[in-house]
Amino acid sequence: MTYFTTNDGHTLTVYSSLYMDYGLTITKDGEELFSNPHVLSHESYGSKPSEDYDDMEEAEEALENGDENAIVPWEDSDWSEMLELEADELIEAFIVKDFTTTNQTNGANHEQS
Q1: Is the pTM of this model over 0.85?
Q2: Cβ-defined contacts of 75-81 (< 8 Å, 24+)
Q3: Euclidean distance between the first and final Cα of the chain, in Å?
Q4: Cα gap 62→42, rounded to integer Å
Q5: Domain-by-domain residue ranges, the chain?
Q6: Do 12 and 18 touch, CB atoms closer than 8 A?
Q7: What is the C-alpha separation between 92 and 55, in angstroms, rounded?
Q8: What percent of the chain has pLDDT over 90?
Q9: Less crowded by CB within 10 Å, the N or C end of the chain?
Q10: In sequence order, what are the residues at sequence separation of 6 or more whose Cβ sits closer than 8 angstroms to the Cβ of residue 101?
Q11: Is pLDDT larger for residue 85 or for residue 100?
C-alpha cells in the first residue's frame, strides 16, 4: 500500500493482507526488523466515514440503516499520514532492544539459551 521513512532511516510499510487486518513491515538499512501480516486492526485502521458524514459514529449508524457507502477505505494519503504520525510509537512497540543478548527482537524480549 504505502510506506514512510523516518529521519533515522526506519521504513514502515503498511499493506493489505488476506485477513481483514493490515500488515506492517519495519526495515532499516535494508534489514527487516519486524513483519506481521495482521498487526493493524481493521477496527482502528483502514476505513473512514464518506464525505456525506461528519464522523465515524454517524457513518456506522448510516451503514446499519442500509447506506453501504457510508464507510470508505483509506486512501494512500490517509495511510501516509497515519504512518508519519504514529511511526515513533509503532517502532517503539514492535522493535525492542534486548539488552541481555544485544539482538533486536520482534515485539518482546526473548531469552537465548
Answers
A1: no
A2: 76/1, 76/2, 78/48, 79/1, 79/2, 79/14, 80/2, 80/4
A3: 38
A4: 19
A5: 2-47+73-106
A6: no
A7: 29
A8: 76
A9: C
A10: 110, 111, 112
A11: 85
> Residue 15: which residues within 8 A CB-CB, separation 6 or more?
1, 22, 23, 24, 25, 37
Helix ranges (H only) for the chain are 56-64, 76-94
Q: How many CA atoms lie within 13 A of 109 on its CB side?
A: 7
Residue 113 has pLDDT above 60, yes or no: no
C-beta of residue 11 within 8 angstroms of C-beta of residue 89: no
Residue among 35, 10, 11, 33 at smallest CA distance from 22: 35
CA atoms within 13 A on the CB side of 82: 20
CB-hemisphere CA count at 13 Å for 8?
A: 4
Q: Which three cell numbers stand for residue 78?
A: 490517509
Paired with 40 in beta bridges are 22
Three cell numbers written together for 5: 521513512
